[in-house]
Amino acid sequence: LQNLTILTINLTRKSPTIETKSKNAHIAIIDAFLEQDEDKCERAMRDHLKDTCREVVEHFYPGMINGGLLKRETS
Q1: Residue 70 forms part of a structural domain
Q2: How many domains does the chain have?
Q3: Domain assignment of residue 65, yes or no
Q4: How far apart, in Å, do the first and last CA atoms of the chain sit?
Q5: Disulfide engineering: 32 pairs with which of 19, 21, 41, 46, CB 3.0-4.6 Å?
Q6: Rounded to an integer, what distance in angstroms lies between the CA atom of residue 5 and that of residue 44?
Q7: CB-based contacts of 66: which residues, under 8 Å, 6+ apart?
Q8: Looking at per-residue confidence, does 8 or 73 come out higher?
Q9: In this structure, is residue 40 part of a structural domain?
């Protein structure tokens, strides 16, 4: 987990879009925590981790997610 954290920090520094998404995700997690809504907090955290993993894959393997080997989930 520590290596993934370091990797994502380095990637977000190079991408304002990823950095903005990450900040918004962290705000959503904190808001859910402050609301004391466990389900919302867990959902926000899981969404953030899933989105971060997808961003990392897309960074190293452009096109792999959309129309590639990995299909983006629809909610």
Answers
A1: no
A2: 1
A3: no
A4: 26
A5: 41
A6: 17
A7: 72
A8: 8
A9: yes
- Cα–Cα distance list, 64 to 21, 28, 56, 61 (Å): 20, 27, 11, 6
Per-residue confidence at 61, pLDDT binned at 50, 70, 90?
A: confident
Give the range of the structural domain holding residue 35, as residue numbers without chain letter: 2-60
* Beta carbons within 8 Å of 65's beta carbon, 6+ residues apart: 54, 57, 58, 71, 72
In a domain, 24, yes or no: yes
CB contact at 8 A, 47 and 72: no
pTM of the complete model: 0.68
Alpha helices in the chain (DSSP H): 2-14, 16-34, 38-60
**What CA–CA distance (Å, rounded) separates 15 from 70?**
22
